[in-house]
Amino acid sequence: MASTISAAGATRSGTVASSTPSRSPESRSGFEDRDHQLEKLQFSLAIALMRGDSERSEALNKQIAERGGNAEEPGT
């Protein structure tokens, strides 16, 4: 008998089901890892800019540039 998923996302057996397949860090490509690191840096930059922390913003901009920046346009 197949287990069913409730609206809360739990199966009958009590384990939580994921809507996306999980991937171990070993199965990630270098491209995906680079993109993930860039996203984290860009998020940190947005927070630093919001707080007015220009010193941290400059450091984060430098780290983003060192990693090649974002080759894609936002939303693509």
List strands and helices in order, with pairings.
Blueprint (H helix, E strand, L loop, with lengths): L29 H22 L2 H13 L10
Helix pairs in contact: 1-2
Task: Report on this structure.
This protein is mostly helical. It has a domain at 28-66. 46% of the residues lie in helices and 0% in strands. The protein has helices spanning 30-51, 54-66. Helix 1 (30-51) runs antiparallel to helix 2 (54-66). The termini are far apart. The model is unreliable at 9-13 (pLDDT under 50).
Write the H/E string, N to C: HH
Oligomer: single chain
Helix content: 40-55%
Instruction: Give the termini distance in whole angstroms.
Output: 41 Å
Percentage beta strand: under 5%
Major β-sheet annotation: none
Determine the mean pLDDT: 74
Structural class: mainly alpha
- Count of strand segments: 0
Low-confidence stretches: 9-13
How many helices? The count is 2
Compute the CA-based radius of gyration: 19 Å
Taken from the alpha-carbon principal axes, the silhouette is elongated
In short:
By secondary structure, the protein is mostly helical. Helix content is 46%, strand content 0%.
List key phrases describing it.
single chain; 76 residues; mainly alpha; 2 helices; elongated
